[in-house]
């Protein structure tokens, strides 16, 4: 079966799903996006993802040509058309076609596309063994230049950091703020545990307000764990009892080494495992249904 892509109101075959070389999403990274997961025939936290897309678009003065409900419907329709029950959904709004100058006002029609694909799940051993991280030398964008809260198509900041990770032979890396505090990773939020407390950098520090992060904070509070949102230096990661990352693709993945320092006893810790189990239960129990 050919893969069908939602593109500006139509479902088109993958080979026909094309945008112009004059699209400012391509020319300038001018646009916004979301990465979303479907589990067992339901889209996880779809409303939250669409709300974040709408906030990102509003911040860059981009008018999404679809209402919230139309975006929900288009997402579900794209999953259905591709028989996606468990999958990864990419929703993108570009500034659209303009001329060769920067001026977004010369782009009269934003483009919306949605890709629903069956995902390559991360291997289960990653969750059993845990990740090694480095601290990247590339600092996270400052909110005064490009706010990391805007999930824009301009991901070069993260890509430069990701290159450092792959060059060092690790899958993820910590990005610091310009003040030298931990912000997040290239495509994941970060948590540490100290005793019975769960600690994570605050949104104001200049991070993406992660949907998985918010879900894990809710679950932790429900488990009676104290959650503290505060800035901390990377040294506190080295000396933490546990560390894990959260993201739509990664879910909740343990970290066992950072800059060659062992974290805790070098194995995924009990709070990480407890929260991962709770998160998996949550993804099984809620979401916007794909089926009619
Ligand atoms: N921080 C950044 C910078 C991200 O890009 C997250 C945190 C986690 O947020 P959510 O809402 O997903 O819990 C992200 C999102 C990938 C990939 O292929 C990952 C993201 C975006 C695009 C692609 O790994 N992460």
Task: Describe the model.
The protein is of the alpha+beta class. The chain has two domains: 4-117, Aminotransferase class 4, branched-chain amino acid transferase, N-terminal domain (D-amino Acid Aminotransferase, Chain A, domain 1); 124-284, D-amino Acid Aminotransferase, subunit A, domain 2 (D-amino Acid Aminotransferase, Chain A, domain 2, Alpha-Beta Barrel), CATH 3.20.10. Helices cover 29% and strands 27% of the residues. It has eight helices and 16 strands. It has helices at residues 24-28, 46-59, 68-81, 124-129, 156-167, 211-222, 234-238, 270-285; strands at 4-7, 10-13, 31-39, 42-43, 87-94, 111-117, 131-135, 172-176, 182-185, 189-194, 197-200, 226-229, 242-247, 251-258, 261-262, 288-289. The strands form two sheets. Strands 7, 8, 9, 10, 11, 12, 13, 14 and 15 form a nine-stranded mixed β-sheet that branches. The chain has a seven-stranded antiparallel β-sheet with strand order 2-1-6-5-3-4-16. The longest helix has 16 residues, at 270-285. The radius of gyration is 19 Å and the shape is globular. The two termini are 20 Å apart.
């Amino acid at each position: 079966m050919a893969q069908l892509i939602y593109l500006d109101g139509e479902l088109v075959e993958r080979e026909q799903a094309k945008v112009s070389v004059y699209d400012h999403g391509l020319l300038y990274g001018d646009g916004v996006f979301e990465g979303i997961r479907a589990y067992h025939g339901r889209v996880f936290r779809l409303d939250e993802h669409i709300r974040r897309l709408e906030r990102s678009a509003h911040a860059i003065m981009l008018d999404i040509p679809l209402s919230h409900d139309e975006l929900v419907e288009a997402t579900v329709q794209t999953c259905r058309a591709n028989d996606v029950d468990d999958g990864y959904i990419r929703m993108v709004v570009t500034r659209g076609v303009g001329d060769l100058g920067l001026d977004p006002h010369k782009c009269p029609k934003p483009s919306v596309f949605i890709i629903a694909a069956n995902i390559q799940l991360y291997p289960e051993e990653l969750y059993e063994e845990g990740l090694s991280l480095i601290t990247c030398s590339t600092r996270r964008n400052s909110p005064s230049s490009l706010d990391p809260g805007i999930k824009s198509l301009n991901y070069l900041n993260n890509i430069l950091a990701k290159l450092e990770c792959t060059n060092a032979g690790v899958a993820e890396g910590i990005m610091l703020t310009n003040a030298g505090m931990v912000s997040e990773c290239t495509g994941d939020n970060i948590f540490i545990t100290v005793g019975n407390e769960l600690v994570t950098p605050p949104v104001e520090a200049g991070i993406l307000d992660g949907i998985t992060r918010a879900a894990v904070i809710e679950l932790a509070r429900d488990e009676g764990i104290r959650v503290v949102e505060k800035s901390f230096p990377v040294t506190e990661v080295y000396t933490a009892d546990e560390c894990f990352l959260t993201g739509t693709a990664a879910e909740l993945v343990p970290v066992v080494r950072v800059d060659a320092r062992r974290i805790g006893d070098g194995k995924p810790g009990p709070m990480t495992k407890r929260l991962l189990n709770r998160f998996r239960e949550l993804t099984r129990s809620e979401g916007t249904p794909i089926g009619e």
